[in-house]
Amino acid sequence: MAAISHKVHVALGERAYDILIGPDLLDHAGAILAERFPGRRFGVVTDIEVEKAQLPRLRRSFEKAGLGFSVITVPSGESTKSWQHLQTVVEGLLAAKLERNDLVIALGGGVIGDIAGFAASITRRGMDFVQMPTTLLAQVDSSVGGKTGINSPHGKNLVGAFHQPKLVLADLSTLDTLSQRQFAAGYAEVVKYGLIDSPDFFEWLEAHQAEIFSGGPARGEAIARCCAHKARVVIEDEKETGVRALLNLGHTFGHALEKDTGYSDRLLHGEGVSIGMVLAHTFSARQGFAPGQDAGRIAAHLHKSGLPTTLADIPGTLGSTDTLMHAIAQDKKVSRGALTFILTRGIGKAFIEKNVDPDAVRTFIEDMRP
Amino acid sequence: MAAISHKVHVALGERAYDILIGPDLLDHAGAILAERFPGRRFGVVTDIEVEKAQLPRLRRSFEKAGLGFSVITVPSGESTKSWQHLQTVVEGLLAAKLERNDLVIALGGGVIGDIAGFAASITRRGMDFVQMPTTLLAQVDSSVGGKTGINSPHGKNLVGAFHQPKLVLADLSTLDTLSQRQFAAGYAEVVKYGLIDSPDFFEWLEAHQAEIFSGGPARGEAIARCCAHKARVVIEDEKETGVRALLNLGHTFGHALEKDTGYSDRLLHGEGVSIGMVLAHTFSARQGFAPGQDAGRIAAHLHKSGLPTTLADIPGTLGSTDTLMHAIAQDKKVSRGALTFILTRGIGKAFIEKNVDPDAVRTFIEDMRP
Ligand SMILES: NC(=O)c1ccc[n+]([C@@H]2O[C@H](COP(=O)([O-])OP(=O)(O)OC[C@H]3O[C@@H](n4cnc5c(N)ncnc54)[C@H](O)[C@@H]3O)[C@@H](O)[C@H]2O)c1
Ligand SMILES: NC(=O)c1ccc[n+]([C@@H]2O[C@H](COP(=O)([O-])OP(=O)(O)OC[C@H]3O[C@@H](n4cnc5c(N)ncnc54)[C@H](O)[C@@H]3O)[C@@H](O)[C@H]2O)c1
Ligand SMILES: [Zn+2]
Ligand SMILES: [Zn+2]
């Protein structure tokens, strides 16, 4: 029936679930859900762009399977992860008269996954939900692992819940309507998995990059390998008290740059991560942890993928080094003056370093400025 | 040190916690928390009335123990359980720079316990919290069991989380500043525990009612017995998929009446429950489940406690029977036309009946109208 090309199981005990990956899963989603969740109704949460590009397919497959469903649409973009839109989604689910054992569907990128998953976790004190990620970033990262939430004026993702989905359906063909720039941004997170602890995977990416970008079979394989990697980490450390922090490689620098550019079109999240990963490797080399040549090899691969790799690649004027340092200190809890960073001993050898000297970071940023 | 007169343990595995009951626990709260949660900071959530009546004591004991804390105050009353005030509390906790392993304190009645507990569960994806209930209702009911939440325009408590506290401190002397009317309303829930499955407790209440109301030693004992009862039910059915529903004895009728009177001063929650319990017993007798005399005995006890027991006791004009039936159908999910009610075979013999005929309820309400 449905063409499922890859399947990853997230073995979290009573919160276990499957990630199904395939070329046209949305067209079969109705049948899959009817079989896995008989007799339940569905509240589909999506954003206006995904509604245009992908909802018609889901709608048809739901209708074919005879499923009862309602659709709640919110605007596209990071600013949707707000109190206001959270309230819209939750009240929308209640207005649709969904019961506690009905399901919420998140159809979209990481923004929709985060807000719809969080809304599910607090509506009627907890409804089940299904992730249908439609961006590369969401397929390889945000749809797996159960972190959900919205942003606060005090910072990103500060309000939310750990709430695992009951199922993830990653339809590869949804990526065909995604912009090249968004695809590349998601690819930065793909590369990240190689850099953390899988040098073989990084090499494989170097060899298959063109095929992944053009949509050949390597695309599905890359996504499946990322999901398996993330699943492994999440099983080991569901609530991020330890090793899950490695997934933040490149993110401390990246978040500071995102903040500095106002979470705007100037720099997408994955673009910030791309620059951040290069900076983390360069900084690690300077600190004597890593060989010097890795940063260059990584930068070359990311650059070839259409991603920015240096501070000079960010359009517009960057804030002062003080401003960036302030953002870095906020992102990573400062304990007695020292900073926590994900550093590395080379490709595939990332580690958590809790004792980074802020002055060394400051000098480093000064040197890296264009 | 602290005068702890009773201790109840809620054995919920890794979510287990203690309920400590005593005459002056607020004065010792600082020392108790400093010992149980060393090195943590505290965000105290309270309402304006409790701030005036009880916060000064807590503040002194925190200062004596050298604890770091911030206070967030919201208005008093049911309308505080809203999106707007939830946002105020969560953003207040973030503005106070509380970290994920700091603690939220709910100092107040059920309204504060519900909103502060919910805020704790979603701030930084989950902070620990401590209940310091200051109403009789909160001490015997809402502070135990981990149900937290706010109201939606679609209905009461429709948005929330299951989030168990780490500790409950019930200070008996806080009840001295509570109005007689609020105390009596909470007492309806005390009586409820006897009616569900503890006829001995109901008899004991009949014998000790005056002492409970005047603040003698029976007050602490009654509260401890209620907490132990609720703890037992919660351990058996944490997420209310079965037997926990018995705690709703009197609540289906009660909620319909509360709704009809606009959740206003005309009828407090416990007052609605008082009338509801008498109605549930009278209806059960009519249906042939229970002996006729129990309803009268219960009504006499509640009436002596200063509580309303009949529809005629509600000030103002009641809505039509249709309106009440509509509220009843909304409160309890209607499955294929039948209603679910907590009925009874007599004092201490409540049971869940899923097959109640709506027409019988309608006729019954008609008969009961003044
Ligand atoms: N929960 C987690 O573990 C986790 C992990 C990483 C990132 N995130 C979050 O994910 C968010 C970023 O996710 P994102 O990059 O997917 O952003 P996004 O959800 O904003 O999607 C990017 C843009 O692409 C559009 N779009 C999505 N799918 C499309 C499709 N198939 N065709 C055409 N357009 C499409 C969207 O409307 C949006 O404009 C951030 O808020 C981040 O905090 C969460
Ligand atoms: N979570 C649960 O399991 C659960 C169970 C039952 C009820 N509830 C909820 O509890 C709420 C009702 O709780 P409540 O009856 O405690 O109401 P409440 O919190 O509104 O308190 C009643 C009034 O008494 C005041 N007050 C509280 N303590 C005082 C004190 N010591 N001295 C002087 N004034 C004081 C308050 O400011 C308020 O005006 C409802 O919202 C209900 O839904 C929750
Ligand atoms: Zn990321
Ligand atoms: Zn009640």
UniProtKB/TrEMBL annotation, chains A, B:
GO cellular component assignments: cytoplasm
Gene Ontology BP terms: amino acid biosynthetic process; aromatic amino acid family biosynthetic process; chorismate biosynthetic process
Residues involved in Zn(2+) binding: E189, H251, H269
Positions of the 3-dehydroquinate synthase C-terminal domain: 186-334
Cofactor binding comment, as recorded: Binds 1 divalent metal cation per subunit. Can use either Co(2+) or Zn(2+).
InterPro entries, alphabetized: Dehydroquinate_synthase, DHQ_synth_AroB, DHQ_synth_fam, DHQS/DOIS_N, DHQS_C
Catalytic reactions of this protein: 7-phospho-2-dehydro-3-deoxy-D-arabino-heptonate = 3-dehydroquinate + phosphate
Pathway(s) of this molecule: Metabolic intermediate biosynthesis; chorismate biosynthesis; chorismate from D-erythrose 4-phosphate and phosphoenolpyruvate: step 2/7
Subcellular location: Cytoplasm
Residue positions binding NAD(+): 76-81, 110-114, 134-135, 147, 156, 174-177
GO MF annotation: an example: nucleotide binding
Essential cofactor(s): NAD(+); Co(2+); Zn(2+)
Record-annotated 3-dehydroquinate synthase N-terminal domain positions: 72-184
Its EC number(s): 4.2.3.4
CDD domains attached to this UniProt entry: DHQS (cd08195)
Keywords, sorted A to Z: Amino-acid biosynthesis, Aromatic amino acid biosynthesis, Cobalt, Cytoplasm, Lyase, Metal-binding, NAD, Nucleotide-binding, Zinc
Physiological role: Catalyzes the conversion of 3-deoxy-D-arabino-heptulosonate 7-phosphate (DAHP) to dehydroquinate (DHQ).
Family to which this protein belongs: Belongs to the sugar phosphate cyclases superfamily. Dehydroquinate synthase family.
The protein, known as: 3-dehydroquinate synthase
Organism field: Devosia crocina
Gene (UniProt): aroB
